[in-house]
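ok so I'm stuck.
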Amino acid sequence: MPTSEYLDAKIETATLKEVQKVQEAKLARQLDYLFARSLFYKEKFQAAGIGRKDYRRLRDLVRFPFTTKEELRESQAAQPPLGKHVAARLDDIIRVHSSTGTTGKPSFVGITRADARVWTATTARSFYTQGLRKSDIVIHAAGLTMFVAGLSSKDAIESIGAMFVPIGTGASEKALMAIQLLKATAMHCTPSYATYFAEWVRREAKLDPRELGLKKLFCGAEPGAGIPAVRAQLEEDWGARVTEGLGNADMAPILFGECTRQTGMHFCGQEYVLAEIVDPENGQSLPIEKGVGGELVYTSLERECVPLLRFRTRDRVTVLGTSCPCGRTSFRLRCIGRTDDMLIVLGVNVFPSAIRDIISSLHPRTTGEMRIVLEEPGPKVMPPLKIVVEHSAAPCNLAELKNEIEKRIKATLSIPCSVELVVAGTLPRYEMKGQLVKKVYENKGAV
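replied:
not stuck anymore, here's the structure
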């Protein structure tokens, strides 16, 4: 039964030993299922020279090979429509979602009725952790169609008993009308849309976003809501508490949720997914303790359609702690970006989100909008790193601002950069995921 603080108090406050006991037993059953039902893993394990007997305890998981997104795409191409890694019968699959990767080809993900229940449970736990309650009226201003966190968010929010308002993307007029008429208390969206919508409300409706009365912003799908300066700006814009969630299209829509203390996202899938953090360079499993940084890796513990073992997410995270005043015992983290987005300048690893944090901290002299301009494919970039930054419409000394941004980036990130200032409104806004990098080598058009 839900309490004022927890949706599932028993597992959310369980000790690490108690959680690991559950995970150990469930992983044994999941491996039995994989060896019996997944052609993909039968072939993969055989090639790696590993068998079912090689798993006895939870610590044995590190002996098994990783699974990558590239392998899943190849599996799907070899055996369409869902791939060799599908372990459920087609007539047991009740829904299919997809994500679009760098190839532009859809990557399908199917779920059975049991999988849907797991997705609902983890997603609901994330929303509840973030402060969603039965009394809330939630504007869903994110994807609703093939997006994994669309219908899954609907199921989760409704399971808590809150009111779900399915606005979707590209419908700011409808979102504004619904907020006003229904007296909505919360909005679920990307941080990019929360920024865009605040500007839209001021420009088109001639209203202060704070007047709309939203009290909670649940953000996800991209880094941003956890960036201190970006969060501060969103909270100033909306007069609402901002929290973030994190998921993965191939594993589960939302697996992490930040509690109302706003000190990092708690892991919310303890009995359904096993999370590891590994060194992105050598794949070595790292201890999950405060200060550790690396790549998130997921293993299904209770999945029927597309169970995945040691799936590399490419999400780069930092562990912020393994306890919290809220009483939850799962670890907390912050996602700093994706391995795909990382740039290397003079041997220094740089994530666009770190640069955005510095630029957003200079608000109101900057709008917070910026683009890194790449003239050649990364991740290595010849210095100085080129960055286009929007300055506010209010009068300011642009030469001083340019110099200050360049100095702050150099002092904070240890990389040289060259900043070009453009007037507010120059850079495009995004209603879904924001774009912080412009690859001009792909398109020689305007920035």
